[in-house]
Design a protein that fits this description.
The chain is built from three helices and 29 strands. With 364 residues, the protein is mainly β. The longest helix has 29 residues, at 3-31.
């Protein structure tokens, strides 16, 4: 065989192997990127059957609520987050009879004060953790000291300035804090205050669109809840309707189940960086509020187009931990925020006269 031909064939083989290797590298790189799997939507048909009408009993009809957004259960107390047009953002009620006890968490930048409340959680010692994303501060309220009128009933700390990205939420998680930022390569992370260390534990976002920044905005425009035993994390979107349930194990996070109900339809808000979205008039609105117990998941779900909200009411959907629907509860009142303990649901809801009241419902 001609030596020149042998060399030429050899070089062609090497070149093909090199191109194949480069292609493999590209596939591996993109296969390991932060982009999630393409989603498939199940639709709303499964939400129309077996609805249960439940009647509420008024626990407190005197307190003036403005725009309640969350309820936390701490032993015999209900802590209600309502900062809209209020001087204080957190309000304590007795679970047994709805008696108002005290408001705290004053609006401001001073010690113990908050500009806003982005997330609430309770640590293993029953201390209430409130995070203010605007001021990047974490407030730790000792409710026992607060109720005993002690002066120093709170501690606070700020997120280190070296963390340049915006931290949306902070939840107590054992000795650490679970944090969210919704930035590329960092969806959920762990902050260890003692070691002053931060590391990412989950980076993928659902692929609602081809624009990864929009995907992150859709996820951030939603509700985030952590279970009392700190073993599960729930994320539910408002634009469109997606529910994700994660298993939290020490310093790792794994997606257990995702339920994609309706495709988000949105308009990008001009001039925002990173990108932000608003639902279109035709967009199906998803979750307004959520609550997660150690054995079930609950969402306050609209399931109607954005332009039909004023003539509709959200309903409570109960799921098991595989996100299979167990029960759907309808109320006469328009629920704004709720919490569940056993067979009892506590809710701040708007009555026929347009007034918010604190209710209790049996959800057996």
């Amino acid at each position: 065989m001609n030596l020149e031909l042998v060399i030429r064939n050899y070089l062609e083989i090497v070149l093909r192997m090199k191109n194949s290797f480069l292609l493999l590298l590209v596939l591996v790189f993109f296969g390991c990127s932060d982009r999630g799997e393409q989603v498939e939507y199940i639709g709303l048909d499964s939400f129309s059957d077996n609805r249960i009408e439940i009647s509420g009993n008024v626990l407190n009809g005197d307190f003036v609520f403005s725009w309640p957004s969350e309820i936390i259960i701490v032993d015999s107390l209900l802590i209600i987050h309502d900062f809209h047009m209020q001087n204080y953002g957190l309000h304590i009620f007795r679970r047994s009879d709805g008696t108002f006890i005290k408001s705290f968490g004053a609006r401001g930048r001073g010690p113990g004060e908050l500009l806003s409340i982005s997330s609430l959680s309770v640590n293993d010692n029953g201390v209430l953790i409130a995070y203010d994303a605007n001021s990047r501060r974490v407030m730790k309220y000792d409710l026992h000291k607060l109720l005993n009128n002690e002066t120093y009933y709170y501690e606070e700390f700020s997120i280190p300035e070296r963390l340049s990205y915006f931290v949306s939420n902070m939840f107590s998680c054992g000795d650490n804090y679970l944090m969210t930022s919704y930035y590329e390569h960092f969806r959920y992370g762990i902050y260890n205050k003692l070691k002053d260390s931060v590391f990412s534990i989950y980076a993928q976002f659902p692929s609602f669109t081809d624009d990864e920044e929009v995907n992150r905005a859709i996820v951030e425009y939603g509700v985030l809840e952590i279970s009392p035993n700190k073993q599960y994390l729930l994320n539910a979107t408002y634009v469109g309707a997606t529910i994700e349930l994660f298993c939290l194990n020490d310093c790792s996070l794994d997606l257990k189940k995702a339920l994609h109900i309706s495709k988000p339809q949105y308009n990008e808000v001009e001039g925002t960086s990173p990108k932000w979205v608003n639902p279109t008039e035709e967009c199906i609105i998803g979750t307004e509020d959520a609550f997660i117990t150690n054995d079930a998941v609950y969402t306050l779900f609209w399931g109607v187009p954005n332009n039909a909200l004023e003539i509709s009411k959200p309903y409570i959907v109960q799921y098991d931990y595989d996100l299979s629907i167990k029960k759907i509860f309808e109320t006469r009142e328009v629920v704004g925020a709720f919490a569940v303990e056993g067979d009892c649901m506590y809710a701040v809801a708007c009555d026929d006269d347009g007034e918010y009241k604190l209710y209790t419902y049996a959800i057996e």
